Amino acid sequence: MKARVTVTLKQGVLDPQGKAIEGGLKSLGIEGIGTVRQGKVFDIEVESADKAKAESVLRDACERLLANTVIENYRIELAE
Amino acid sequence: MKAAVITFPGSNRDGDVARALRQAGATVVSAWHADHDLPAGTDLAVLPGGFSYGDYLRCGAIASRAPIMDAVRAHAGRGGLVLGICNGFQILCESGLLPGVLMRNADLHFICRRQHLKVARADTAFTNRYHVGQVIDVCIAHGEGNYVCDEETLHELESEGRVAFRYCDAAGNVSRAANPNGSLNDIAGVFSEDLNVLGMMPHPENLIDDLVGGVDGRGLFESLAAA
User: Fold this and answer.
1) Is A64 in Cβ contact with B148 (below 8 Å)?
2) Hey, what's the signal peptide range on this chain (chain A) (predicted)?
């Protein structure tokens, strides 16, 4: 089963990289950019075909390595 | 004092910290990230600077899950001493042995230069050869040294006296201007609750010989060697 895990910084955590990207977009003259926050995407092939099992494996992966829950949130999406 | 210096894939300051410890009189042995135990009789576990696992995912994240880290956690739990410098500090934060996290420097630059620090606490196994308020001249070399934690943790660190060093200028003024990376409260190093774990971004092991510009880093290793 294919899955996508998205890791983003929690609200309120300063994001110097996002700020720099925001500045870069604005200096390109791209109109209409508000604020930018950057994060990470992991595309993961999960062995289990069972959705609940796959989700629990991925949750464990997020809690133990993929995200630092002090500063980051994660979101798990499983392909239909 | 028997110190075990742990090498992770991508550590590159293990030799320097071993030299600094030996110079101070400690016995130094090597440990490997894939080991499940620290060498018998280890008093101090050292996580050196470098770029473990190429800083992939987050600095120190993958190294903090290495087999040796269970042994380091157990050692710290028994009250054993643990020192993490630079990438070692990042590994300690990722492993949960120290609170908070080291984020990208506020100005996004990798900063490699001399830096003054103010000693915030001198009654610990790591810092007793210094005095409170002493200004020491060491080095920094990092891209992710911006210490961040939640407000509650910051309050705990400050009220329990767990800040080890703060960034300052040559005159000892702690200020935003002397803070190279945006760290909260100008924090350059923090202790664990029991003061047996220290993580710090600067490199005291760089300044242990007049040949390379100074000896202000010696105090840390001499404190430890006598512990």
Assistant:
1) no
2) none
